Amino acid sequence: MTGPVIFVEDDDALRLATTQALELAGIDVLPFARGDHAVAAVTRDFPGAIVSDIRMPHMDGLELLAAVDAIDREIPVILITGHGDIAMAVAAMRDGAADFLTKPFATDHLVAAVRRSLDHRALVMDNRRLRSLAEHPADDPLIGDSPAMQRLRHIVRQLAEADIDVLVEGETGTGKELVATLLHRWGRRRARPLMAVNCGALPEGLAEIELFGHASDSVPHTRLSRVGQIAASSGGTLLLDEIDSMPMAMQARLLRVLEEREVHPIGAERPEPVDLRVVATSKIDLAEAVKAGQFRADLLYRLSTARIRVPPLRERGDDVLALFALFASDAAEQFGQPDWRMDAATRGRLRHHDWPGNVRELRNFAVEAVMGVAGQSLPGRTAVRSLPERVADYEAGEIRAALEASRGRIPPVLNALGLPRKTLYDKMAKYGIVPGDYRRRD
Fold first, then answer.
1. For the whole model, what pTM was predicted?
2. Are 100 and 291 contacting, i.e. CB atoms less than 8 angstroms apart?
3. For labelling, which of 85, 294, 300, 328 has a CA lying 20 to 30 Å from the CA of 141?
């Protein structure tokens, strides 16, 4: 998402024609006839760029450049000059102008220059937002202001006080364990233990002992009794992480615990009462697992007193940037990179990637970006790229090849690729492709 461009030109006909050309290219335009009026509309938070003629009454383009620099030196200013003003424009470039064009200029040259400036400004603004987010982290562990996260926070706080069993569902890497932990931390049992059991990592053959414990002299090679994790959580919360991985035989025994609120250790004469709250997490739809014969329907029914769905990152909008700011700040501190800034490639991935690995994938990407190895795994191997990423690479390559063959001229590229002009410019902006880079000077 980029901001508007302020276009300043005292010639009414030229201002109207250029404004229409930029709008046809999909760029929002704020036209002004006077430089001082344009500067009055600029603040440090202005998200766009400025295009201005140099020779104008009241305030010329160089005075406008100085006035904008005083507000924010990182707002791009493109100057339009006559042939006799080229030396003046070159000097202005040294003073901070982003670019200059000579009259008469081709519309595609102007559009390309504007898109470059808007992309640069968007990167500047996102870096500022990253720094602000890192300097003022959210107090709530459930980071994000998206509607999905606001709903999640509300539900978690309500259910935390309700002190009932909860099933937490969500894709891998969404933060289900954090939600489960907060249900305990924000609830009435916060002063009592939270016992977390990773059902997918229970050792084969020892799962029953781990969960239920055993009486003395009831297990070979062991004389002492052992308290299982279910009994150890009495008075607090039992977190059954990845319950979808629990073997069917164990599911039957767990169902009895949930129904009777008692646990029977191996070899014990009688069961022991337990006072616990159960929070279970699952990365798959347990209803589908029931249909497939991989999960007990009665256990699902018992666990489903309340259900929470943790949204995937692709449904959380700008929360991606807030999370990335936190992770990148932590990584920059850890690896001694206090001056690290996000580059265009990193920003593009944050804006366009759908994060199938969710928060966990984003955290890993933040570390790689700060270390300068984004796109690779930390041992240096090329990371697996998704199909949309590979399609985008192919598309960008085809556009670059067509521009190379046409020496940067747009009409032959349109013919070769069979694209409308606006579509081509949109794609070039998306991939950071500048036609002028392909114009050879023989």
1. 0.66
2. no
3. 300
Task: Choose among 111, 59, 53: nearest CA to 77.
Answer: 53
Query: What one-character-per-residue DSSP string does 90-137 give?
Result: HHHHHTT--EEEESS--HHHHHHHHHHHHHHHHHHHHHHHHHHHHHS-
Is residue 175 left, alpha or beta, with left meaning phi > 0 and alpha meaning psi from -120 to 50?
left
Average pLDDT along the chain = 84
Q: Is the peptide bond before 104 cis (omega within 30 degrees of 0)?
A: yes
Distance separating alpha carbons of residues 190 and 425, to the nearest angstrom: 56
Say whether 382 sits in a helix, a strand or coil.
strand
pLDDT in tens, 100-157: 888 888 888 899 989 989 988 988 888 888 888 777 666 678 888 899 999 999 999 9
Place of tokens 């539900």: 155
Dihedrals φ, ψ of 392, to 5°? -65, -40
User: Residue holding tokens 């509300």?
Assistant: 154
Give backbone dihedrals phi and psi of 285, rounded to 5 degrees, phi first.
Answer: -75, 110
Diameter of the chain measured on Cα atoms = 102
Place of tokens 């929470």: 308
Instruction: Say how far apart CA 352 and CA 186 lie, in whole Å.
Output: 35
Burial category of 418 from C-beta neighbours within 10 Å (exposed 0-12, middle 13-18, buried 19 and up): exposed
Helix (H) or strand (E) holding 6: strand 5-8
* pLDDT, tens only, 218-274: 665 566 667 878 888 889 999 999 999 888 888 888 898 889 998 887 777 788 899
Beta partners for residue 221, in sequence order:
none
b/e burial code for range 362-376 (CB count within 10 A of at least 16 → b) = bbbbbbbbbbeebee
Tell me which amino acid residue 158 is: Q
Give rounded-to-5 percent helix, strand, coil for the chain: 50, 15, 35
Rounded CA separation 295/248 (Å): 7
Distance from C-alpha of 241 to C-alpha of 197, rounded to nearest angstrom: 6
Please state, in angstroms and rounded to a whole number, the distance separating the CA atoms of residues 413 and 277. Answer: 65
Q: Which amino acid is at 350?
A: L
CA–CA distance, 338 with 196 (Å, rounded to integer):
36
SS3 state at 59: coil
Residue owning tokens 């709250």? 277
Three-state DSSP at 25 gives: coil
